[in-house]
Amino acid sequence: TAENVQEVVQNAMKMFHSGGVSLIDEDSSVSIWDVKAHKQPLPESVQSCGFKGLDMWFSPYGGLLDGTLTIFLGSTNIGKSIVLVNIAIGLAMNGYNVALASLEMAEYAISARAGANIFDTDINTYDEFASNEEQLQFYIDRVKKQYESSSRPLGDIIIKQFHKATPNEIDNWILHEEKTRDIKINALVLDYLGELGNDFGTGQGTPFEVYMYHKQNTQSLSANAIRNKYSVITAHQDKDISKEATDMDLSNLSESKGISHKADAVIGLIQPPNAKADGKFYMKNLKGRNSKYLN
Q1: At what angle do helices 80-93 and 107-118 cross, to 10 degrees?
Q2: N or C: which terminal CB in the chain sees fewer CB atoms within 10 Å?
């Protein structure tokens, strides 16, 4: 019925997760004595976001890898969404297709932030700039033309605002877009982690529920990325991170410390008062599963 449909669906999904994973995942295993098992990621499989410092933090191979989960951590209004949009642009400029899922910001607002960057125009007058469709088409065509002779064609950024969605619902959206558009999505940029629904029905009431909510969601995001071969980049804010903090580490996480277990990289955004006055913030590598540049 309309009253119990959500409960029935969640119970069914729990059954699949608890008993059906081994049946769904049909990828074969490898033997340590097989030469192919020792093959490291090839350069063409490493996704560069265009920011060399970040690429160095993402992995020792100089970029994002399929199946990895990267989380940017910061206080409110520090610029997490701008960072995520700019990474999406960098990936597209390097030839990778990006699914940008927003659980907060409208599609036109994301396009404005991205367009101001791509077309080098003032965000404060973007409404006027975008209202001239003929001019905007000229700028779009000019950018596309720059990549016609490139070894890697310009990637796409597919934007969708979700009013509420779980990790599995977003994964289904990615698979649908791949099928409909006949492309491979290389990366999911998710804005942002705290607004996700939960596939297991876990809420954010008690401290333990908050911990489990984040742990389950990051596990689901990572599992989907491994299974369907894309990287995930997202952001998170924690109420215990001060807006004026001059440093940060993972101990600053309170009930949401569950985000850190499954993440391959956690990068802190720090904006002390003197940096804010200059319109800047710092980044700190809080966790890198394969990085030698920790802290």
Answers
A1: 60
A2: N
Encode pLDDT of 74-117 as tens digits: 988 888 999 999 999 999 999 999 999 999 999 999 999 999 99
Asked if residues 85 and 102 have their Cβ atoms less than 8 Å apart, the reply is no
Asked if 171 contacts 165 with a C-beta cutoff of 8 angstroms, the reply is no
Look up the pTM and report it: 0.89
